[in-house]
Amino acid sequence: MDAQPAPDTRPCAHCGREVPQRAGAGRPFRYCRDNDGACQRASRNSRMRHRNSPGLPGQVARTWEAVDRLDQLVETLTEALHAELSPAGVERQLAELRAETATQVAAAHTARDEARRDAEDAAATAARHRQQAQAATAERDAARERAERAESEATRATGAARSAEAARDEARGDAAAAQALRVQAERDRDAARHELRTLRGELDGERRRGTDLTAERDAARADAERATRSAGEALTRAQQLRTDADRARTETEAARAAAAQARQETEQARAQAEQARAEQRAAQTAREQADAAATAARAETEDARGVLAARTGERDALAAELAAARQAAGAAEARLAELTVRLAAAEADRDAAQRRAGQLADQVSDLASALARLSTRTG
Predict the structure, then answer these.
(1) How is 90-118 classified by DSSP, letter by letter?
(2) How far is CA 371 from CA 67, 105, 111, 151, 376, in A?
(3) Phi (first) and psi of residue 196, to 5 degrees
(4) Which of the four pLDDT bands, split at 50, 70 and 90, describes residue 2?
(5) Among positive and negative, which fits the CA dihedral 354, 355, 360, 365?
(6) What are the tens digits of pLDDT across the range 201-241?
(7) Of the residues 54, 85, 116, the one at which a domain ends
(8) C-beta atoms surrounding 171 within 10 Å
(9) Contact criterion met (CB below 8 Å) for 46 and 40
(10) What range defines the domain where residue 73 resides?
(11) What is the pTM assigned to this prediction?
């Protein structure tokens, strides 16, 4: 076997013993390494004692202190360069670079996936917004149709209200006519009652006259009987009695004629009374008809008022529905505008996400290319 070469040595700067040196490149060891840095501390303490000395010893001590500092800096730089430029350091840097690159690639893939998901979410949101916009458009059209129907119903309700008002005016006219008929019937009734009272007074007078004539007739008959009985008693008085009898007969005939006339007048009075009663009954019937017509007119008026109130309520309800429909249409249009803005924003977000995904894909490609070049250089 070949003999191992003896390691290089160098005397200690403090005690003078030989100090083994490392085989590779690097800063040489100036102090003993087997006494936990005692020689280095002793040399530093000696220099610290002599650094303030006057003359050459102080300058030498300060120079050695500066040299030690420079040696420490050189050692630090040498170790750093050795750690960075040695194969192990290069491998470590490559491993760190690979790990960092893998982390960046994973982050880029994650960002790309997130960007894809964001793009898909944006597309889904845009589709949902389109559907909402279509639904809002349909709601707006439906609201417009409801508004048009409400306007047509309001127009019909207005026409019905006008018809009800015309019916009310007609009913009022009928009621006024019925009232006039009732007043006229009451006037006719009062006139008939007055005529009836007049006829009754005349009838009572005729009855009294007939009674008087009957009494006179009875008296004449009594006188005639007395004259007949006394005819045999006095001849002289016969002529006078005959004259009286003739006169009595004449008066009796006149009384009979008056009684017949009174009977005829009584019959006429009765006929007039019956006619007055018939006229009264007709007037009563006319009054009842007028009252019934007035009641019907009042009922029709109340019905017309109820219909008018109902039509007015329906018109107000339709007006409220029309206002609500217009408000709903305005809200639907505002919602449509908002959804349009949100759709544009979602499309802009989608485009931005797609651009970001493209940028991340480019970055991943660049990182992969850099990693490939680094691997090629390392190999």
Answers:
(1) HHHHHHHHHHHHHHHHHHHHHHHHHHHHH
(2) 43, 10, 19, 74, 8
(3) -65, -40
(4) very low
(5) positive
(6) 777 777 777 677 777 777 767 776 775 676 567 566 656 66
(7) 85
(8) 21
(9) no
(10) 9-85
(11) 0.31
